[in-house]
Amino acid sequence: MFEATVSDGVLRLRRSGTRWLSTGWDGGRSRAPAAYNVTVPEEFDRTDLAAYRDERLGRAGFGGGESGAPEADAGAGSPGADRDAPPTLFTGVSMAHARGARLGPVVAYATVGLSNPAMLPVGAEEATGSREPTARPEGRPGPGTVNLIVGAARSLAPGAAANLVAVAAEAKAATLLATAGVPGTTSDAVVVADDPEGAPAEFSGSATAVGGAARACVRDAVRASLRSRYPDGDLPGPAADAEHGVVTDERAEVFDP
């Protein structure tokens, strides 16, 4: 489905003509030949992320020419694609810890770092000890991040593509709660991809072939990346004194509509 290549701290997932939907920086819908997951250095403080992306892709050998711009796609600009910007995610996690999982019509890739956990207490007894989030400039990637790229060998209806983001995020949260005690971090992102020439799929819920496979792939890719990143099992989490992170323990007003 995808050709995966890692070079100079950049993971490229290449498949010509792919449609993407990204929740990350410069996200939204696009059509491009590849998506990227980029490791940023410690104390990263760049905010000109488009220029930084192009620099890193050029250094990694993924540029589309002398300018270092991302590769062009003959299918870009086709009906149903808003633009041709390549989805690009950023993380403090090394691409040495990137892991993939495949099942049926779906493949998922994950990088997992938990240095900035985002906790959401549910019981009243847990709503104490709030930790203020560490401030960072608008648009700057956080120090950890759980990044997911999920691809389906189907032509997803617009609603099915959007719902697959929710399916992937739910699977990520369930996996991390079971293994690390947190549902995610302050800067997680999801990219979903589909094949406009594939068999049509109107739905992507957990009871569908696409949704069920996505749940399994995300779970297994996240677990594998987590084991790679924390081989000794020393996971940041609710009991850890994480340098970054947030606990959302405010209580909202509940009312009948």
How many strands, which pairing sense, and closed or not: the largest β-sheet?
8 strands, mixed
Shape: globular
Tell me the span between the first and last alpha carbons: 45 Å
Helix content: 10-25%
How many whole angstroms does the radius of gyration measure? 18 Å
Mean pLDDT score? 86
Structurally, how many domains make up the residues?
1
Helix/sheet category: alpha/beta
* SSE sequence, one letter per element: EEEHEEEEEHEHE
- Counted by DSSP, the helix tally is 3
Strand content: 25-35%
E-strand count? 10
Q: Stretches where pLDDT falls below 50 for ≥5 residues?
A: 74-81, 127-131, 133-142
Question: Main traits of this protein?
Answer:
257 residues, alpha/beta, two-stranded parallel ribbon, 21% helix
Plain-language structure description:
The protein is of the alpha/beta class and 257 residues long. The chain has one domain. It is built from three helices and ten strands; from the N terminus they run E-E-E-H-E-E-E-E-E-H-E-H-E. It has helices at 49-59, 158-180, 209-229, and strands at residues 3-7, 10-22, 28-39, 88-91, 99-103, 106-112, 118-119, 146-156, 189-201, 246-247. The strands form two sheets. Strands 1, 2, 3, 4, 5, 6, 8 and 9 form an eight-stranded mixed β-sheet that branches. Strands 7-10 form a two-stranded parallel sheet. Strand 5 (99-103) and strand 6 (106-112) form a beta hairpin. Helix 2 runs parallel beside helix 3. Residues 74-81, 127-131 and 133-142 have low confidence and may be disordered.
